[in-house]
Write a structure and sequence with these properties.
By secondary structure, the chain is mainly alpha-helical. It has one domain. Helix 2 packs antiparallel against helix 3. The model has no long low-confidence stretch (mean pLDDT 84).
Length: 110
């Protein structure tokens, strides 16, 4: 199994949970914008630190299991893991939070 296929299989659960959290909690664009910003930061950090670790020869990949595209020294397959984490953790946190506050159920405070 290639690295891309392995990462793709692990990406399925976060995508499904993010969709379910959006439906269940009626998440709006602000939640998705914050999640996208988180994923962007994770992607940048992944590219930087993967390149540093590969350049330091801390690890290497089986070339026949890679797609071949790289960002610097880092294979693009490594970018699916931060996307999965950036979707999974906020989705689980949202689903484990208390019931959503509905605008019509808020009491007016003086």
């Amino acid at each position: 199994m290639s690295y891309l296929a392995l990462a793709g299989w692990f990406l399925i659960i976060p995508v499904v949970l993010a969709a379910y959290a959006t439906w269940r909690r009626r998440l709006d664009g602000r939640w998705w914008a914050a999640t996208a910003l988180t994923i962007t930061v994770l992607l940048v950090l992944t590219v930087v630190f993967d390149n540093v670790m590969i350049a330091a020869d801390l690890f290497h990949y089986e070339e026949e299991l890679l797609v071949g595209w790289r960002i610097g020294l880092a294979p693009v397959e490594d970018l699916l893991w931060p996307v999965a984490a950036g979707l999974l953790l906020p989705s689980v946190a949202t689903l484990l939070a208390g019931p959503p506050v509905r605008p019509e159920s808020r009491e007016e405070r003086p």
